[in-house]
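Good morning,

Both structures are done.
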Amino acid sequence: PVRIFVDAPGASDKDYAKYQEILAKSYNKWFTGTADVIRSAKREQEFADIMPLLQKGVNVEFVDHASAADIWAHILPWSEVRWKCGPSAGGCYQRRKGEIPDLFLPKDHFVLKVLSSGQLGLSRVGLHEVGHSLGLSDQYDKAKDSTSHHRYSSAQSGKGVMSSLKKFSCDDADGIVNLIDLVRGVA
């Protein structure tokens, strides 16, 4: 399981439940979305070894204390997210040695969605930042100068969630398949 501690200061029980649902869906989308891409390409047989894992999805558990978590999700106003992540960021994933990794995500806000043409909001940014927590790098043009490995951060392969698009793509599925292969030690 992926154990998540959600820190959403001032959130109602309804909003807190919504944040948990969005985070769980975001983690699962990376696996079920990859399975969908494989099925739509009619390549199930080629990936038969990992299809059961992909179709199963991720067991997301929400914990009451940060000390029991694998990920600490901070749901904050956009101004605070920008302060934590940088002035042009909609959210970020931060991993510091010896500490629980952090996801900084914006609270959903109507004005924020309108001003960003739907690009910034908890669902959209959450899916992208969860991709980072799984080990995927940015795939948009500015990432060329980042600390990401050049193989996983090129403008040539920026057609999905890890780029600036909303839609889960073949590039995103390739990233998950490559990560699964790395973890399993399969070339």
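Second structure follows.
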Amino acid sequence: MKAARIHQYGGPEQLELQDIAVPHISADEVLIKIHAAGVNPVDWKIREGYLSQMLAHTLPLTLGWDIAGEVVAKGDAVDDLNLGDAVYSRPEISRDGGYAEYIAVKAEEVAIKPNSLNWVQAAAVPLAALTAWQALYDIAALKSGDKVLIHAGAGGVGHLAIQLAKLKGARVYTTASKANHEFVTALGADEAIDYQNDDFTRLKDIDVVFDTMGGEVQANSWQCLKAGGIMVSIVEPLEEAKAAQHNAKGEFCFVQPSRTQLNELAALFDAGQLKIEVAQTLPLAQAADALAKSESGKTRGKLVLEVG
């Protein structure tokens, strides 16, 4: 099969399209023929080696942990998925990923894809939607009436976070370029803040800050929180001292696989309560170009690789 792999950490030149063996599956796994694979910032961060201390990867490594495809084989212990099932998954990130024609995945990490989404759309959902769900629902315990600030609301995670926050009945503030204000307000944002020309720190008494940027944005966001509020970051850990200084809480979210949550998300998509924005699709052979676009940080919604 074809797979886009790295043999060492580094820049775009490290990603190579190669012919490798189709993976074998264990008793509790399924083999998925991949039709499309989502592209996420974690992919180029892993390629660069930024997460090498956190994730025990073995090189060479196939990148990409956001997939949609068809079950073509299953282990003897798998009784809740069938051959031919159309599925989607955010597979375990410590293993080989989905920039490939086939992937072996634990059955418990796989869910039936939303019927209303095609392969490309479905592949764009798992990692970003699970990230937003786990950050806002599981960690922040967002509830109706809460005020939430979502940074980079037009991005892959951000545009889903806006929709999930509105489903909880929250009041949503989001940062986005002026060109994306119409986009984020159409998703449900109550107020869009132009990060290039407006100061988001004018916001006060925010219950939840969802940090998708890190750095200076994270540092400045503390002053927006009310006493007892919480900031959840998906970029970098938060300083306990900073949280204490503002009488707030800070939590880091690193998304985990969840069939249960993927099932709930599929129901929301099929009910028309969520939608996914796909910025561009590229062929698997252009995976390096897709990562470069992701690294630019200027993409509205998600980038997706079409595999087969």
